[in-house]
Specification:
The protein has about 90 residues and is α/β, with parallel strands linked by helices. It contains 4 helices and 5 strands; from the N terminus they run ββαβαβαβα.
Length: about 90
């Protein structure tokens, strides 16, 4: 897990875009892991998912829900994509 320093905007909300940094760090660490687990619904990660599939390094893409997930990501992650809303009952403590 990688964390990025953040700054606050004029309203005191956390501001920052870490997409490029996460893609770059994944590529730097490519030979350090067997399979990647990408947690996102953001289409900006479509190119990373595509490459990880190509080099057989994609484990799964986990997205919060289908409604707000990028169609680009859905297409690229096919067969490797799960949605938290669909697995919620299996993930909940009983």
């Amino acid at each position: 897990m990688i964390f990025k320093p953040t700054v606050l905007d004029e309203n005191g909300r956390v501001k920052g875009n870490c997409d490029a940094e996460l893609v770059l760090q994944t590529m730097i660490d490519l030979n350090e892991f067997d399979k990647a687990l990408i947690v996102t619904g953001d289409g900006d990660f479509q190119c990373l998912v595509k490459y990880l599939r190509k080099v057989d390094k994609l484990g799964y893409v986990i997205s919060p829900n289908k409604k707000w997930c990028s169609i680009l990501l859905k297409r690229e992650a096919r067969g490797y994509h799960v949605f938290i809303e669909e697995t919620k009952t299996r993930l909940e403590l009983k």
